[in-house]
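Hello,

Our lab assistant flagged a job as stuck in the queue for most of the afternoon. It eventually completed. Since we weren't sure the result was trustworthy after the delay, we are filing this so someone can double-check. Below is the sequence as submitted and the structure that was eventually returned. Let us know if re-running is recommended.
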Amino acid sequence: MNKSLKIILLVSFNIILLICLFFITDYLTYRIALNPKKYLEEHPLSTFIPPYRYYLKNPHITFINLDGYFNGKDNIINGRKPDGLEYKKGKPIIIFGDSFAHGQYLNYNQNFSYKLAHKLKRPVYNRAIPGASLQHMYYQVSEENSSFYKDVPISDTIFYVMINDHYLRMSIFSDFDVIGGNFYLRYKIKNNKLVKDNYNNIFLNLIKSSYIVRAINCKYVDSYIKNPKNADKLTDLAVKYLVETRNCLEKRWNKKINFIVILYDNNKIDFEDILKEKLEKNNFTVISTDDLTQEDLNSEKYLMQDNLHPKEAAWNSLLPKILEKCKKIL
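-- returned structure --
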């Protein structure tokens, strides 16, 4: 056996050994993280434990299949139906965000969109999605998704309700725990454009499916979003989503839009001053709930203590003050 062949065989053996060690370690990582009781407690809407598997083709990407989603069938999982359709005067208003804007766990007549519609006597289309973030707003209005413009009429006013968790959600690339079975929708800024991750790349999907990689990513993202050195990157990306969403809507509807960002400060939004300054420079109306009330929005009066979502009392208190701040544009 010549020397070259020995080297090839040795390298091949080492590669195979490394691959085997990787998958063994990956499986052990899954087993260590697997705690069915804890998983179901932390994911109350789940009914099964994600199996050990790799999602190489057609992975489940969170909150992109929205056909029929905004049906109002419940107040937890499904999207809200429009409010105030009985009002015929005034352009509709659109609300984006996550479970706070959606009004998760609230009855249909207790949430922000219902109260806004009936206070202003204008239709309000609540396009918020529990668990979502800024990228899901952008995805809805982008050219990639056509259903939004079929379901939502031309508007002149948009609200986005932001909480601190949106930094985490726009940064993570797989799921929020090691054994999760989803890929989280993600974009990166390339050449000043938002570019969606390639979910058709089998190798990248393998990496994102890896339980070792997921464990590292979860730890890394937690530290990344708390690091002041990353303040500009995080706030730049948040602003980019909002700017490009507005650009898409204004281009499609051929009109200028009033865009209001509500910073819901029940948990202080990191780098809020930087974010607010950048948004205002880009002609967004920015409202911080810290500036609206001295009340503790984390108190039992305003926050459900079991699931940490706003109660009706929070919106009853905040809505008049939000409208006062926006009276020149509403």
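-- support follow-up --
The delay was a queue issue, not a problem with the job. The result is valid. Residues 3-33 form the longest helix (31 residues). The mean pLDDT is 92.
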